[in-house]
Amino acid sequence: MAVDFSAAADEEDAINEPILVGSLMAEVRGLAHHRGKLSSDGLAQLVRDPTNRFDTNAFRVINERGEQVGYIQKEKAKSLAPLVDKGLAQLQCIGAGNGSSNRVSCEVFVFSLPAMVDAVRDHLEYYGEQLRSPYDPPVDNVDDGRGGGGSDQRAPSIDDIFESMTAGAKIRQRMEADNSVIKSSLMQHQKEALAWMVQRENSSALPPFWEKKGTTMYTNTLTNVTSAKRPESLRGGILADDMGLGKTLTVLALIATNKPGAVLPPIEDIKEPEQSQGGEPASKKLKTSDDKGKAKTAAPVPVSNDGPPCVPAADGPRGTLVICPLSVLSNWESQLKDHTYPAGLKVHKYHGPNRTANARTLADYDIVFTTYNMLTERNSPLKKVHWLRLVLDEAHIIKNPRAQQTKSAVALNADRRWAVTGTPIQNSAKDLLSLMQFLHFEPLNEQSFWTKTIQKPLTSGEPVGFARLQGLMSSISLRRTKETKVNGKKLVDLPPKIITVFPVDLSPEDRSLYDKMEKDGRNMIRRFLDNGTVTKNYAVVLQMILRLRQICDHTSMCPAEIVNMSTSSDTDTQAASPELLKKMLATLGDDFDCPICLAPPSGAVITSCAHVFCRRCLEKVLEDEDKQCPMCHEELSEDDIFSSGKPDEEEDEELSNKNDVEDDDDKIDVKGVKPSAKINALISMLEKTRAKDPNIKSVVFSQFSTMLKLIEGPLQKAGFKFVKLEGGMSASKREENMEAFKSTRSGSPTVFLLSLKAAGVGLNLVTASNVFMMDPWWNPAVEEQAMDRVHRLGQTRDVHVFRLIATDSIEERLLQVQEKKRAYAQIALGKEASEQRKKKCVEEVKLLMKC
Predict the structure, then answer these.
(1) pLDDT (mean) for 79-83
(2) Which domain of life is it from (predicted)?
(3) For residues 437 and 432, what is the distance between their CA atoms, to the nearest angstrom?
(4) Cβ count within 10 A of residue 364
């Protein structure tokens, strides 16, 4: 289990950093008198000009090249000037694109310190200005001048980026898929995504933030980079729809519709319905010329004369390479079977012993499916093909720019590129750098430009950082969530997901063992806290927390020697065994960054003091004469560094996908072991479900492979037919078990045992409607991804999620940590300093152990 090192900044720092209060629309006027230009999505500074002889409230609008564009309209300047003059607010604006020869629209973003938010809002409301997408009032314990404490304040969240970018009135459009290939009907939001993707793919316009200057030069308005070479059109982007909204079908529709030499279906503007009484005035709604409320048919997608033809050429590249995790491969194959006509698309799976080694043969397929690990093969034919299109499914996997599979994906030759992920930003905005590199988005694919333009302003809390990130995501990504509403209705009508925390009382024997272990562990950790040696004894701390969690599942998962060790008085010299450290690494490696390079660890290793690093980063540190751990300064040698024993990236993925925790499996004989309280509770709930409806199917998640094995016997004894999916299972066995569980035939399995990390992404399990989480995972996002395997498009029943939590245990406190992490995830746009991470680590240990 990992202590999280990627949370948000300290609350004290948050109080002193400006946050986004909201935005308002305005006009930049007087363009005819100034040489500067403000393009759509172009950034600009608002500079006060109090000596202006025509208007003492004037704001000059200065673009990224330092040229004046014009002035903010007087009506808006009158309300904004006092805020800036009194130091209550900072302003930033982005061009909105609509205008004439003498004026252009822009969106003005208002930033203020948390303590000033209410004052800023009140001032603007006095002038009749209503901010769009406002955030909540000041943080706790901040005196707002009204005689009472403020309410909770949060900084702009990751989803706020997408919410604010969709707040502007953009024309909604849709496109039908090629029904000679796609046999399923697309939902409205999928048709809209298809229209957006086709237009992005076929555009020959300059990429976002680039403008033509004169007749031969091109300038990037975001970075001020000037080039004599015309930047290549950005054909592709990020499809970031929430998990379970049918991204796979949308991509299949794109492949089938926008194919070489295609005659494309028309793109239609969507008529917004007139608003009834009590809603927004109809005058503010987007209108089309069709008075009957039907969609207006537009011309087919235009072909631009500025650059190469838009529609894929009939004699050009044909194939789309879809790259996905091994666990998702079978889902793509089943989706293809469900949604396309037989022989509609020519398909090949580049994985396993039957894959072809001939590049020309691969180039002749419409779709080639492969996995990320296949990209790292030496002399792979995938690298020799000129692809029409690349699709990275679960694209957040390449968030480490230095990983070999990331470099291989970036180097592939293709005309169009798509990153498909419901979580484009997992820990911080830095995760996007790899996606910029994959998309070949110049110059933001260069780390120096990315750091200077996006990452550094975000990390330092500069208001321009969020505005730039919002503008960037607005230009290249599309995101909708299950909660997104269109005309007051949710995007998709999914049945509800009901999450229930089901308390489980440990048996008297298990309670006695647990209390003894927790008491000994608490005393030990208190000594570490008193001595300031928590980080030096991190291995022992993690081991104690891990074993307490295992006792909550089943006492047989905690070996006797571990129990005896907890009573040792020589705690300052205790160390975890190499075997345990390797198992910790298998669990921790993906959950936080290397403290040296601040990126996900590449070739992860763990030290005897239980700190995780990139192998190369740590090797460079140990080249110095003073060979110490960078985190706790313990002396290290080569014998103190361990790897998980998992294969390298170049080796076969069927073996390297073994991510679940092994928990001394080789030492535990599960046959004849008495069921624990949790297992008894699970069987009881499954039996009650079967009594109500024998056809109801359930999935059972655990992060511990031993726990899954311990459940098998009681399931068999109770007469349940089940299948299993865990790390290390071959692709063919995975597919066989998936198909068996999906079957609606009488006698098919009704229970699916799943390893949380091996099966938490990419699977479609809508056949089930019950989810049992046997143990809480440290990172709540992992659990939510697992739940969404069941709660997604195609689900027709209410989804019931039961979280089995041992009462009066570390698991209850882990739920509190999860809630904090959910809050941290909302403001994880920057990075924490090393000392802040250590502080948060210690605080979480104290919470978990009640110290």
Answers:
(1) 93
(2) Eukaryota
(3) 9
(4) 13
Question: Tell me, what's the pLDDT at 133?
Answer: 55
**Token pair for 136:** 């909540």
Contact call for residues 706 and 660 (beta carbons, < 8 A): no
Find, among 817, 789, 786, the residue nearest to 803 by Cα.
Answer: 786
- Please tell me which residue, 486 or 795, carries the higher pLDDT value: 795
Spatial separation of the C-alpha atoms in residues 370 and 329, rounded to whole Å: 8
Q: Quick one: which H or E segment has residue 239?
A: strand 236-239
Which has the closest alpha carbon to 192: 247, 230, 154, 146? 247
Spacing of C-alpha 8 from chain mean position:
16
Span 130-137, average pLDDT: 55
pTM of the predicted model over 0.85? no
Domains of the chain with CATH codes? 18-154 (3.30.70.2330), 173-274+294-478 (3.40.50.10810), 534-547+556-665 (3.30.40.10), 669-849 (3.40.50.300)
Helical ranges in 765-809 per DSSP H: 780-787
Between 640 and 421, name the one with better pLDDT. Answer: 421
**What is the rounded CA–CA span in Å between residue 436 and residue 427?**
16
Residues 541/845, Cβ–Cβ less than 8 Å: yes
Q: Are 372 and 653 in contact (CB under 8 A)?
A: yes
Nearest Cα to 196, choosing from 258, 246, 154, 110?
A: 258
CA–CA dist 622, 629 (Å, integer): 8
Averaged confidence pLDDT in the chain: 77
* Nearest one of 532, 459, 455 to 839, comparing CA atoms: 532
pLDDT score recorded for residue 837: 52
Q: Residue 365 — φ and ψ, nearest 5°?
A: -90, 150
pLDDT reported for residue 340 = 95
Task: Kindly give the residue spans of alpha helices, DSSP state H, lying in 647-730.
Answer: 653-656, 677-692, 705-717
**In this predicted model, what pLDDT tens digit does every residue of 331-357 receive, in sequence order?**
899 899 999 999 899 999 999 888 998
Q: What confidence tens digit (pLDDT) does each residue in 27-38 have?
A: 999 888 888 888
657 DSSP 8-state letter: T
Name the region of 156 (left: φ>0; alpha: ψ -120 to 50; beta: rest): beta
Task: Show the CA angle centred on residue 659, arms to residues 328 and 513, nearest 5°.
Answer: 135
pLDDT, position 719: 95
> CA 848: distance to chain centroid?
26
The secondary structure element, H or E, covering residue 32 is: none
- Which of 480, 501, 412, 533 is closest to 163 using CA atoms? 480
- Cβ–Cβ contacts within 10 Å for residue 848, how many? 26
For residues 172 and 193, give the distance between their C-alpha atoms in angstroms, rounded to a whole number: 10
Other C-beta atoms lying within 10 Å of the C-beta of residue 299: 7
Q: Count of CB atoms within 10 A of residue 72's CB?
A: 28
Residue 515 burial class via C-beta count within 10 angstroms: exposed 0-12, middle 13-18, buried 19 and up = middle
Q: pLDDT digit string (tens) for 797-828? A: 999 999 999 999 999 888 877 676 555 444 44
**Cβ within 8 Å of residue 14, ≥6 positions away:** 8, 114, 139, 153, 155, 827
Task: State residue 532's pLDDT score.
Answer: 77
Identify the residue with better confidence: 366 or 298. 366
Cis, bond preceding 443 (omega within 30 deg of 0): yes
User: Could you tell me what percent of the chain has a pLDDT over 70?
Assistant: 72
Query: Where in 719-826 does DSSP place strands (E)?
Result: 722-725, 751-755, 770-773, 799-806
User: Measured between alpha carbons, how far is 312 from 416 in angstroms, rounded to an integer?
Assistant: 10
Spatial separation of the C-alpha atoms in residues 11 and 139, rounded to whole Å: 9
Q: Length of the chain, please? A: 851
pLDDT (mean) for 369-394: 93
Confidence of residue 72 (pLDDT cuts 50, 70, 90): very high
CA-to-CA dists, residue 76 to 64, 129, 137, 456, angstroms: 22, 9, 23, 31
DSSP bridge pairs for 43? 94
Residue 758 vs residue 188, higher pLDDT:
188
